[in-house]
Amino acid sequence: MTERDLRVVLAEDSVILRDGMVELLTARGCRVVATAGTPDELLAAVEHHRPDVAVVDVRMPPTHTDEGIRAAVTIRATAPRVGVLVFSQHVETAWASRLLAAGATGVGYLLKERVARTSEFMDAMRRVAAGGTALDPEVVDRLVHGGRAGRVDTLTAREREVLELMAQGHSNRSVAARLVVSERAVEKHVAAVFTKFDLPASNEDNRRVKAVLAYLSETGG
């Protein structure tokens, strides 16, 4: 799926930022079918338009705490085919865990600074709209290094690197390119992760999702 195929609902209460994001998305060929400034407006827009992806600010009116993430969780439950990409000013591992509780497909969590990096933002939108995962590297790093002991601690340093990149939504080929190793080497590390997480042979994508969820459940607080 390319940007030009994407139908987007955008939820951001700051008019300046919202207008800027609409301009950015439109310039890249996306069709912003609706914008929203409140959680209720967001939920109504998703229900009406059923977009490919909803881009949602974590903090929204009236309290500017977790209204956006709660609306995102609702979308995940009521419209599972709609990708959800949330963005926040800060790393909030508890919010990331709540968002991923229903599964690690069609979901993303980015820091707002990443939104300004157009290529990264658009890549994350494409992955989420296609049913993939896009977690900000800083979110993943906080989850990895701030969690409690568990199966993650049985991984080697390289296996953990591979799993971190899997959690960010990278394919084996992309992981290999980033770590400058062969794709076969990555496959071996992924297989080791599956073994240590006690994930028997089944659908490859399903096992990747389960591995990411196990990783987040043990490192996310």
UniProtKB/TrEMBL annotation:
Domain Response regulatory residues, every copy: 7-127
SUPFAM superfamilies, A to Z: CheY-like
Record keyword Repeat present: no
Keywords carried by this UniProt record: DNA-binding, Phosphoprotein, Transcription, Transcription regulation
Residues that bear 4-aspartylphosphate: 57
SMART domains per record: HTH_LUXR, REC
Domain (HTH luxR-type): residue spans on this chain: 148-213
Protein's UniProt keywords contain Transferase: no
Gene3D superfamilies: 3.40.50.2300, Winged helix-like DNA-binding domain superfamily/Winged helix DNA-binding domain (1.10.10.10)
Source taxon at top rank: Bacteria
InterPro entries xrefs: CheY-like_superfamily, NreC/VraR/RcsB-like_REC, Sig_transdc_resp-reg_receiver, Tscrpt_reg_LuxR_C, WalR-like, WH-like_DNA-bd_sf
Protein name (record): Response regulator transcription factor
